[in-house]
Amino acid sequence: MLAQQASGRTCKPAVLIALLVISGWADGGFAVLIAGDSFDYAVGTELSSGNLNGGIGWASAWVGTGTNIGTADQVEASDIAPPTGYLGAIGNQLILDTDSPTFNIAVNAQRELAQAIDMSPSVEQTYYFSILLRRDDGFNGGGSENSRYFELWESGGTLPLMTGGTTSDEATAVSFNGWPLTASANGVGSLGEVPLGTDLLAVVKFILRPSGQNDEIYMTYLQDGANLSSEPASWMASTAYDMDGSATIFQIVNARFNDQQRYDEIRLGTTFADVVSGHVTHPGDANGDGMVNLADLQILGDNWQSTNATWAEADFTGDGAVNLADLQILGDNWGYGTGADISLDEAFALVSIPEPAGFSLLLLLSSGLLFARHER
User: Fold this and answer.
1) To 10 degrees, what angle do helices 294-302 and 357-367 make?
2) How far apart are CA 294 and CA 274, in angstroms?
3) Which residue of 26, 29, 102, 182 is surrounded by the most CB atoms within 10 Å?
């Protein structure tokens, strides 16, 4: 589960910074994400509410764009089954509905990235994106049935810089510099119809190069039984184009005539494992068990003032040191996933921390100056 709202709380800036610089374990360990959202908000929270503001790597809440954002565009309990081997806690999901029974109004959901993506970096950069989805097309056969599960926009832009989704004939497709997909200078790749009513993990890979060199984008869908240990040997769609600009906005588009589409577990990272098989942990959760509790405090105490530590040794900021900043993060997230009533200073009395770290930590915790007591 990504860092989300817990008991009505949103992630604090320190938490966001920590997650953006996670240095993780390989082979099914912790993932490094640029941005992500699990949509684990309260069931019934509407896209138009401004309250879809959790996750990591974002500079704004989700907003709906288009002329028909309504109560049907909301969070519901997820019924999407990910492929075996996908390491992600599946909770709730976002539904975009094109207004049954006419299905004639597109519904878009977009969000500003905290970290802009330079389309013409000084050195080559590779990124990966994934999203769990299902298309339920009750109006199958209508026109303009294209959908975009991945769009990156420049602020104020009139066309998306990059796009991945389906064409009007429901084939997998990718494009640079615009939509709809047409054979033009921007290049188009398209192959294979996207099955309806099927749970899919859509994966996008894009390689960005310095100006004057072609960039590349690839897309495919993974179903249960797919090998998630490494990226596909072949992709369903791909194209190349020399794209400039700076991507600051991410968008999902459920175009008209599509009925409902369901989305869960958005991930943007720099390796295939980050977005597919890497387990995304919560800030303060050193041992990766989905809770911030006594065990994590013990790990922090054991490694207090270390200078070459990892996340598993309670370095939540990624700077190699275990210090006040990491204790702040653990304190801000104390009790996450546990439902425990024990306070952090009470927990401190129950763990064994070597001196002199134990004494200095005790002073910090008892002072009450480091962080406000966690409210449950």
Assistant:
1) 130
2) 28
3) 29
CA dist 116 to 76, 154, 203, 219, 244, Å? 30, 9, 20, 21, 13
Neighbours of 271 (CB within 10 A): 17
Measured between alpha carbons, how far is 140 from 196 in angstroms, rounded to an integer?
9
pLDDT tens-digit map of 276-301: 876 666 778 887 776 788 888 889 88
Q: 4 and 61 in contact (C-beta within 8 Å)?
A: no
| Contact (Cβ atoms closer than 8 angstroms) between residue 206 and residue 126 | yes
Nearest residue to 7 (alpha-carbon basis) of 337, 344, 294, 299: 337
The gap from C-alpha 222 to its chain's centroid, in whole angstroms, comes to 17
- The pLDDT tens digits of the residues spanning 60-70 come to 999 887 655 55
Question: According to DSSP H, which parts of the chain are helical?
Answer: 13-20, 272-275, 294-302, 324-332, 344-348, 357-367
- Pairwise CA distance, residues 30 & 254, whole Å: 31
Give the pLDDT mean for 114-132.
94
Mutual orientation of helices 324-332 and 13-20 as an angle, nearest 10°?
110
What confidence score (pLDDT) does residue 138 get? 54
| Domains of the chain and any CATH numbers | 31-275 (2.60.120), 294-367 (no CATH)
Q: How far apart are CA 151 and CA 149, in angstroms?
A: 7
Distance CA 198, CA 173 (A): 18
What is the end-to-end Cα distance of the chain in Å, rounded? 19
DSSP letter for each residue of 2-44: -S--BTTB---HHHHHHHHT----SSS-B--EEEEE---SPTT
Is the sign of the CA dihedral 333, 287, 26, 82 positive or negative? negative
